[in-house]
Backbone:
RNA sequence: CGGGGUGUAGCGCAGUCCGGUAGCGCACCGCGUUUGGGACGCGGGGGUCGGCGGUUCGAGUCCGCCCGCCCCGACCA
């Protein structure tokens, strides 16, 4: 490609809206342009890199038996109504009506379409297992796109779907993806770690996220450097400090004027925070019963939740929602809190409406306690009376709960659940995920097959995603310096950046550079040829900015020294090679760089 | 959705407080010089100052409403 013909140009200064390196550099180097919040055009340079990423995705998917296909971006609403997500998902789903006034959906993901295909195509266990995948555009109207290509609204994703007759088959395909994903990221030059993650609204049995660790990330992870435990904060476990065992003392009301927070309470009574019980109030939304084919129009089912955790800890919303089986949580309003007879700031599980009957079903609320509470005696809790607390509150004796579960948020310094070493928090970007869906979608959409015994059984599914644009941005984030991008050879838009410096008597170098360009192209090498009439400074700076791995310079000076100058973008050294040996040298150098990356691809043990 | 910021030429910005003919750098076009790390000279083009409404003889500037974009939080199959 001649740079004089390239669509798109470099920018000397980055638009002020870009803050992180990958966003600034991809804009400046002419890879991407923003059309609206979280919606981008990918210019030719980016398109070439994305093609390479997508081909790596294809190779690794094909290697584990994947079959590529394409599924639509526009779906009829009926399909999403069948699984209930039409109702459960709010404004994040792009919806419109077609000319016949039918409700339509912009694909956020493709489980519905896969399941619909499966129920039409799959009849017999003989048709299983299968692995299908596609690389397709999706749209999620995210409330807050950010960080350039890291979090966007319109994006392209490789998503694969495994179809199995039994759980062992699912497990096998899941493990194969686990390794294939490591291969993919390593081949793209991106270091990642796999962490267990929340299964969220997808239900299912198990999920891993592949995280690229960077301060620009938006997810928080807890990692143990001692034993390797790593988990998304949403589900991270930790060893809770055991409370001192002591005999239960009698309840005692104590005046605590103005002490509405745990901090104030602990200071006022001069006790450590772990001797207090913190009350947290949320409204939880529960799924309404949706019968397949019969869209539910029932209003959302909401219940008040009274969660209790020790004062030295915080509630983890995801853990709490999972313990409840709720689909969403929101903070309760002060009116809602008072409506169940609790006093904000002095709330207590003791003496609430209905609590003494201990008939959970008649209570207008659910009580959840963290699993550390039953073994933490003599805590200070609210008295449900403005200005008063209760000393020596004991779970079991003074109150009970419907649910006892781990609902505590892990944080920096908490003890590793496996080895008790102090854990660290790091930020990361989720670049891929793998998900054991199980039979959720099969059940909702009626995907069944007949097994060898003639029994009808649900197809067992898994889904596995990698966003190609996000991956591109993360590689840019990982591989750059103050001058620009530094693409790994495997996904660089071109392999060689040929710079022609025309000099005073331009004809010689001009002819030589053009000849070299066509020789390289004829040799099958991907070349970006800077044939523009620009000064050397401009050309070198643009080459550094665009970040193609190998730079060749044809100039009077280099010719006088005997040939062409070669420089790797990721190294400072330059050398002169004979013009006649350029093609061979370049091929060798490319092979060397490819080998460097491919040597990183190795088998990762699957953690059981 | 809450909090903060911002919107003036393709990009970066000044001008807004204190109303009076819209500027600078880069980029772009033409001519000439220059050619190993973002050259120089001369000449040139490009603006509904985010939008609508109001105040005023007069609004980029003051007032009101709305919109876009960015950051933090909430959210995130």
Residues:
């Amino acid at each position: 490609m001649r740079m004089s013909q390239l669509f798109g140009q470099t920018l000397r200064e980055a638009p002020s809206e870009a803050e992180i390196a990958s966003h600034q550099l991809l804009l400046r180097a002419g890879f991407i342009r923003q059309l609206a919040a979280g919606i981008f055009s990918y210019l030719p340079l980016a398109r070439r890199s994305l093609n390479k990423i997508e081909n790596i995705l294809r190779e690794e998917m094909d290697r584990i038996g994947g079959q590529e296909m394409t599924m639509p971006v526009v779906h009829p609403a009926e399909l999403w109504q069948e699984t209930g997500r039409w109702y459960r998902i709010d404004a994040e789903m792009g919806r419109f009506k077609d000319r016949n006034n039918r409700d339509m959906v912009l694909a956020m993901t493709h489980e519905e379409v896969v399941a619909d295909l499966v129920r039409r195509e799959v009849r017999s266990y003989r048709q299983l297992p299968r692995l299908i995948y596609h690389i397709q555009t999706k749209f999620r109207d995210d409330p807050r796109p950010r960080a350039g290509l890291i979090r966007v609204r319109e994006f392209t994703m490789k998503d694969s779907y495994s179809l199995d007759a039994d759980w062992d088959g699912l497990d096998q395909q899941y493990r194969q993806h686990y390794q294939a994903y490591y291969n993919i990221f390593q081949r793209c030059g991106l270091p990642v770690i796999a962490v267990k993650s929340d299964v969220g609204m997808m239900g299912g049995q198990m999920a891993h996220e592949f995280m690229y660790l960077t301060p620009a990330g938006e997810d928080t992870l807890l990692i143990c450097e001692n034993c390797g435990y790593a988990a998304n904060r949403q589900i991270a476990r930790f060893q809770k400090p055991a409370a001192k065992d002591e005999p239960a003392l009698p309840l005692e009301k104590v005046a605590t004027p103005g002490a509405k927070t745990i901090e104030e309470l602990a200071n006022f009574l001069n006790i450590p925070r772990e001797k207090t019980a913190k009350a947290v109030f949320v409204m939880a939304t529960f799924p309404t019963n949706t019968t397949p084919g019969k869209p539910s129009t029932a209003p959302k089912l909401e219940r008040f939740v009274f969660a209790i955790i020790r004062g030295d800890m915080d509630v983890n919303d995801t853990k709490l929602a999972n313990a409840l089986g709720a689909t969403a949580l929101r903070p309760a309003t002060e009116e809602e809190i008072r409506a169940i007879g609790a006093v904000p700031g002095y709330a207590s599980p003791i003496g609430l409406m209905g609590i003494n009957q201990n008939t959970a079903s008649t209570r207008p609320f659910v009580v959840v306690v963290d699993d550390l509470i039953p073994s933490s005696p003599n805590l200070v809790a609210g008295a449900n009376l403005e200005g008063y607390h209760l000393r020596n509150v004991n779970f079991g004796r003074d109150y009970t709960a419907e649910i006892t579960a781990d609902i505590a948020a892990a944080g920096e310094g908490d003890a590793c659940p496996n080895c008790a070493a102090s854990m660290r928090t790091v930020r990361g970007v989720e670049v891929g995920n793998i998900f054991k869906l199980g039979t959720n979608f099969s059940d909702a959409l009626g995907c069944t097959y007949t097994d060898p015994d003639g029994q009808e059984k649900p197809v067992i599914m898994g889904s596995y995603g990698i966003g190609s644009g996000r991956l591109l941005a993360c590689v840019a984030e990982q591989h750059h310096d103050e001058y620009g991008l530094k693409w790994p050879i495997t996904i660089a838009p071109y392999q060689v950046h040929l710079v022609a410096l025309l000099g005073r008597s331009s004809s010689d170098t001009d002819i030589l550079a053009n000849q070299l360009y066509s020789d390289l192209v004829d040799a099958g090498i991907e070349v970006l040829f800077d044939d523009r009439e620009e000064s050397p400074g401009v050309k070198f700076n643009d080459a550094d900015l665009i970040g193609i791995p190998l730079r060749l310079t044809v100039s009077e000076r280099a010719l006088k020294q005997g040939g062409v100058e070669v420089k790797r973008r990721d190294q400072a050294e330059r050398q002169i090679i004979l013009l006649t040996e350029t093609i061979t040298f370049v091929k060798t150098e490319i092979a060397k760089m490819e080998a460097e990356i491919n040597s990183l691809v190795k088998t990762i043990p699957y953690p059981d």
